[in-house]
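ERR on first pass: missing label on line 2. Operator R.T. fixed the label and resubmitted. Corrected input:
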Amino acid sequence: MYENVQVLLTLFMYLAFFGWVGWRRGTIREGAVLVTALLSWWLLQNRSGIFVAIANLAAKVVAALRAGVTERSLGGAVEAVGGTADVITPDVTGVFVFGLWAALVVLIYIVTNNFIGSGNPDGWSIILGMANGLVLGAIMLPRLLAPLVPDLDTGDLISSIGVLGLFSGSVDILRDGVYTLWELIEPQSPMVILMLITLLLVLAATSLKGGRSAGAED
Amino acid sequence: MQPVEYLFLILGGFIALISMARGYAKDLGNTLIFMVAIFLLSFLDPQIERGLNIVGQTLFGINTLDTNWGRQIMALAFIGVFISIVFASYAGRTFEYGGTQAPPPQGTLLNLAIGLLNGYLVSGTVWYYLDKYDYPLPEFQPPLSAFATSLIPFLPENIFPTPVFWMLPVALLILLKVRG
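pass 2 clean. output:
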């Protein structure tokens, strides 16, 4: 039962960290990362053949250029292209796709940090930061588990979890965690509910800026 | 038996929508008044019930709680008073907390949270009085569904061991208002 609470706390800390990163970086930067990460992942998953073909062609062109430079003949260059095996074989397509995506994400983080101002941090930047955390976690966490948990079939996990899987999984964790927490605090539920209601009202009241006197005409 | 929980969930949802449309800067004042009304009605419940019973015995010679229509009158009296307070809190000169709301998404989330709280307070209180007087209206007759039964302990008048609990957030809100 208590594992659920640990998982909930871990998820909360993980999201809080990415929320804090979002707060520091600002809405536009985080939005750019989210759009890039999602779009590039979708493209690389559904149109990976294009990128593999481009990479293989580029490798062959490099090989051709090398052959041309060394043998100084077109025939030798063509022969070199024809004779060059694909660099990205079906075995390494997954690694290539993931590597390309990771490079893009790192690049977009660097580009947005250097060329886009952070702006005024607001709630959207926190939400977008958390969304980035979920997306990055969905794609990277199954791969991290492979060396950490040798017995786990991470191949299935990698292919099945996906971004939507992590979102629904997070919702399940939240639901189970809240349910377990509720079971723990149930004996003190009136006090907890009173604290939550009071906290909400105080939060709302203190978030108002520049109040005016009561008794206004509607 | 109609699914009574759906009626109150829909009623609460409507009030939440109205609150969201108005904004929490205006609706905090309503929340405060609803909580005071719940406290007063719960605190004075035995006296009001006794008073209505005396009226019933004097005028009709019956114990009000023994008959279905007597319980109807009791439930409608409490609900009527509460709804009048709710209406008064929205109409005419209102207690308005004032100030400018936080921008979205914080403001939107607070609108939603305060709206849901208001919806819960109003629809939960109406449900409580129907439940207390054993559903005297012909539209809703026991037995309740398992889901509805599980919600009964969480109605505003049942959730705290004493109605005085409702005055803690009220006192804090007033203090914050006075402090400015």
